[in-house]
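The following record pairs a protein chain with its ligand, pyridoxal-5'-phosphate.
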Amino acid sequence: MVDASPVTPSAAVMGTYNRFPIALLRGKGCWVWDDQSRRHLDAVAGIATCTLGHSNRAIRKALTGQLSKLQHVSNLYQIPEQEQLAAWLVKNSCADSVFFCNSGAEANEAAIKLARKHGHQKRGIERPVIITAAASFHGRTLAAVSATGQPRYHQGFEPMVEGFEFFTYNDLTEFEQLLERLEQNGPRVAAVLIEPLQGEGGVNPGDPDVMKAIRRHCDARNILLIFDEVQVGMGRTGTLWGYEQLGVVPDALTLAKGLGGGHAVGALMVRSNADVFEPGDHASTFGGNPFACRAGLTVASEIARRNLLRNVRQRGDQLRAGLNRLVERYPDQLAGSRGWGLLQGLVLKDDCGIQAVDVVKAALEEQLLLVPAGAQVVRMVPALVISSREVQILLTRLERALVRVT
Ligand SMILES: Cc1ncc(COP(=O)(O)O)c(C=O)c1O
């Protein structure tokens, strides 16, 4: 039976998001236009996805070309674009092989399965445990959200998937105590799954010394160290991978967001010691399809051709310097800034009466798109192609937004 009453389009979408009241219709580079023809500077880049900016020429050309050739074939066949992207990732990282999927949560699901199999096979553990950090974010599927150390994401969805234990990010003593407790009667821990820098959790950079010590503990016990690079990977921090910022090499890393430059591509990348998957162990209908991998290949070649890592470092320094000037100018409201490259957070004081979402809303009035990271941090993740002038505009509009809310 077809319902004859009129449908309100926005009410037809399930209410899983609190959406800001604008509709974005087109974009170019770091700019987007809404349905009132207002032009906004996009310091969110999709949501850390549009690595090369909106409507990028190279992406457009490569993907329209791919559309006229082949969009999707099953992983039952060899897929040259997938092999080429895997080869690029392997050549340019610590990994030896890659599994493709479509999102960050899926990449972490694959990593969790890999870790459990490693635990069973290589450490003889019956019920393997994965250690993750408090305030982490690993995605919204049931296992990924169970791995996420933020109770607010668990509420209403219990029981969580078992086998995750949490420690305070960057607290080595707590990590060591947890490890000792879990392993006091023999092997229990299959892996440590951790973000090199916590994005959603408040733009918290990892402490290199803590991460190096965790690496040593993992080595000593044959525990896998898995980095969730979904947000920091693919050049966002000024190095291709977040692990390079820490001087720590993981056994596996997960990737999504920026890899496809705005298209759905996720990946689990593993070193040979962690490659316990065999045919039939894991799969994805859309994972690694020619269209998605063409997008990834284009992002990869443009990062190299345009020397975008240098731009990320330079623009990141400019952005951080500008944020620090704001911190000096608004000492009652701002506690500081932190981040790497083009993943920066402006930290509001806990007791200043303003929350990150207030600043984000005020910035929208100034035609600047920003995103909160937790209650007190305003996050900036612009496209890696952002120019010096655009960073300046970002800072000017951000200051005007701060003036609005203070
Ligand atoms: C570190 C990290 N891991 C995983 C995810 C989940 O990725 P997706 O939304 O593509 O499933 C995110 C998304 O924000 C993330 O920041």
